[in-house]
Amino acid sequence: MRVAVVCASQYGATMGIAERISAELGLAGLDVRVYDAARPPHAEDVAGYDAFVVGSAVYMGHWLKDATTFVRRSQPTLLEHRVWLFSSGPLGPETTDADGADVRESTVPAEIADFTNTLRPVGHRVFFGAIDPEALSLGHRVIRKFPGAAGKIPAGDFRDWPEIEAWAREIARALVKTA
């Protein structure tokens, strides 16, 4: 079974998640290829896959444009296949906010409601992300210097690899079972 993992990553942390998902799917015997959403498979190539995992970094409550464009352009093909979506965005060690709400639930990107209706994905997962201040663009470095911003955009790697791997194994089990 052929699986395409397509993701949009601003600084590489989300691509790291996509690569880890791909590795887990490969361990299950699936034929997996990772694509950068900025250079996705051509339309004729997309049709050659049996399933898709599509993800994006989240900025200001939205997926990156390349991921959104891929989903919308490939919608007819994606509708015919099993699709899982993931988002990478929340930063920091806290899983709940000051009001006790789950940080992941409160950071679901705006596009996911639309994609849920138009693609009917098997599921969507929000993963914590990572940020290296040294790798940021000048504009993002400036934003982090605003009063209080560093606390809201903390530096570090907050990705939960066991959680990501477990989710990928769930996908693998679902695909192997139906193969």
From TrEMBL:
**Pfam families, from UniProt?**
Flavodoxin_5 (PF12724)
List the Gene Ontology MF annotations in alphabetical order. Answer: FMN binding; menaquinone-dependent protoporphyrinogen oxidase activity
**Signal peptide as annotated in the record:** none
* One GO biological process term: heme biosynthetic process
Domain Flavodoxin-like: start-end pairs: 3-172
Please give the name of this protein: Flavodoxin
| UniProt source species | Cryobacterium adonitolivorans
Traced from the root, the source organism's taxonomic lineage reads: Bacteria, Bacillati, Actinomycetota, Actinomycetes, Micrococcales
